[in-house]
Amino acid sequence: MTELDARGLSCPHPVLETKKVLAGIQEGTVTVIVDNPESKENVYRFALYEGCRVEVDEKGRDFHLHITKRPGDEAKAGEAKAAVPSVVCITTDRVGVGSEELGAILMKAFLNTLWDYEPSPEKLILINNGVFLATEGSAVLDALSLLENKGVEILSCGTCLAFYDLKDKLKVGRISNMHEIVAAMMTSGRVINIS
After folding, report:
1. Contact present, 121 and 155 (Cβ < 8 Å)
2. DSSP string, 104-145
3. 187 three-state secondary structure
4. In terms of C-beta density within 10 A (0-12 exposed, 13-18 middle, 19 or more buried), how is residue 176 classed?
5. Which residues are CB-neighbours of 20 under 8 A, at least 6 positions away?
6. Spelled out in words, what is the top-level CATH class assigned to the domain 84-194?
7. pLDDT tens digit string along 91-125?
8. Which of 51, 55, 71, 86 is the most exposed place for a label (fewest CB within 10 A)?
9. How many CB atoms lie within 10 A of CB 98?
10. C-alpha span between 103 and 91 (Å, rounded)
11. 190 φ, ψ (degrees, to nearest 5)
12. In sequence order, which residues have a C-beta less than 8 Å from that of residue 122 and are 6 or more positions away?
């Protein structure tokens, strides 16, 4: 059994360190210790994405993630990654350059049309100003909720939310990290960028 103490590391370092340790073993259990819920979720999702089994114990303020890697897990994870459909990445709260009012109208129309379109993307990634779309006061929360209810995973960049002081105002989807965002883009069959 291997132990990785990732307490005090900022995003995305707990995931990156976990990735290194898992890459160094063929099989076995790695226990990763983190000290905040965001890091726990990020490491948990990464391990599942890699095809591993994960159990979490909460000890005081710390989280102990017991990640078990078995022979064949990487092949199963590779098959799952190959099946990932399209991803939509939105880096702004408006569409296009020019009138801000028109840009906001177009964004709302885009998201409503995206909800009605088949096949749906697997993920909707919000980066930079795009995180405003999923936070309190956004005019498109209903459209995003419809997409989420349809099964579209909505990921908001945690660094962006922190920069704009919006982490406590996220209303739809969940906080993500750059490692997960890059992995989603690199393993997707198609990435559609709205900026």
Report:
1. no
2. HHHHHHHHHHHHHSSSPPSEEEE-GGGGGGGBTT-TTHHHHH
3. helix
4. buried
5. none
6. alpha beta
7. 999 998 889 999 999 999 999 888 877 778 999 99
8. 71
9. 10
10. 13
11. -155, 135
12. 84, 85, 86, 87, 152, 153, 188
What distance in Å separates the CA atoms of residue 42 and residue 179, rounded to the nearest whole number? 9
Q: What is the pTM of this model?
A: 0.66
**Segment holding 75, helix H or strand E:** helix 73-82
Tokens of 131: 């995180």
Provide the pairing of β-strand 2-5 with 28-34. Answer: parallel
Q: Does residue 52 sit in helix, strand or coil? A: coil
pLDDT in tens, 67-94: 999 887 666 665 555 554 689 999 999 9
Domain with CATH 3.40.1260.10 in the chain: 84-194
CA distance 184 to 123: 8
Written as six digits, the tokens of 173 are 């989807």
Q: Which CATH class is domain 2-80?
A: alpha beta
Q: Measuring CA to CA, which residue among 26, 29, 16 is closest to residue 65?
A: 29
The total of other beta-carbon atoms located within 10 Å of residue 97's CB is 9
